[in-house]
Amino acid sequence: MSLRSWVYALYERRLRRHLEGLPVPQHVAIMIDGNRRWARAAGFDDVSQGHVVGARHIAHLLDWCSEVGVAHVTIWLLSTDNLRRPAAELEPLLQIIGGVARELSAPGNHWRVKAVGALDLLPADTAETLKQAEEASAGRDGLMVNVAVGYGGRREIADAVRSLLHEHAARGATLEELAEVLDVDHIAEHLYTKGQPDPDLVIRTSGEQRLGGFLLWQSVHSEFYFCDALWPDFRKIDFLRALRDYGTRQRRFGA
Predict the structure, then answer these.
(1) What's this model's pTM, rounded to 2 decimal places?
(2) Does residue 211 fall inside a structural domain?
(3) DSSP H helical segments within 69-213, as ranges?
(4) Is 109 annotated in the active site?
(5) Is 188 buried (19+), middle (13-18) or exposed (0-12) by CB count in 10 A?
(6) What interhelical angle do 3-19 and 236-247 show, nearest 10?
């Protein structure tokens, strides 16, 4: 073992000791940002290589989450804004995302995959791949992995309200009747992540400090952690630092 590896392992053990007795987030949401910048810094002419490397790194994160007892993970892979990118840039990214979905749902893995996003905005083959990943992993009892593709927070809220209106119309209720009883729980029941706990911790890599529309409704009481590392360089110790930071905070839930 090299000196660097030895020091890294020592520091990881130290971080794990610091986590003993601290609360563990049950739902971690992560914005895996910085793939393109990583590719440029690494000297790649094709920045999609950053997405390839970043995609391979997702399984590592899920293993780390399983090790510490996280039950739900939401990973933002593609926003609704990203769908407006030029075809030459978007198509390779969609291929990579399809590969991620197939890998996560492959036999031998214990993760449950759920696609969250406006699948109707995606190319038919991408949407079908995501649906197949859901079906293939539905019976598993491991970590729930929300794969956010074609996702935008405003779009999600609009879709939730639209679904709620359709549901009440099917029951023969009027808008006036709905307005009388409508509350936040009604909308929450129609979000892409319905039935799941809201994220306790939201992580964004690459040094950017903004949400960009990620889980606008669900993150109202979340704790946020911004990491300078580009996503392909995000290490286990970076993850453990985020957990340590989360565990030492006093959550106020809006108070």
Answers:
(1) 0.94
(2) yes
(3) 87-104, 124-137, 153-170, 175-181, 184-188
(4) no
(5) middle
(6) 20
Work out how many domains the chain is built from and give that number: 1
On whether residue 1 sits in a domain, the answer given is no
Alpha carbon dihedral 17, 22, 26, 28, in 10-degree steps, equals -70
Q: Please tell me the distance from the alpha carbon of residue 216 to that of residue 221, in angstroms, as a whole number.
A: 10
Q: Which of 33, 198, 200, 233 is catalytic?
A: 33
3-state SS class at 222: coil
DSSP 110-149: -PEEEEES-GGGS-HHHHHHHHHHHHHHTT--S-EEEEEE
Q: Report the CATH number at residue 158.
A: 3.40.1180.10
| Within-domain flag for 254 | no
192 contacts 215 by C-beta, under 8 angstroms: no
Q: What is the pLDDT of residues 189-205, one digit of tens each?
A: 999 999 999 999 999 99
Task: Look up the domain containing 216 and give its range.
Answer: 27-247
146 is catalytic: no
Q: State the catalytic residue, choosing from 46, 63, 82, 233.
A: 82
Residues 77-90 have pLDDT tens digits of 999 999 999 998 89
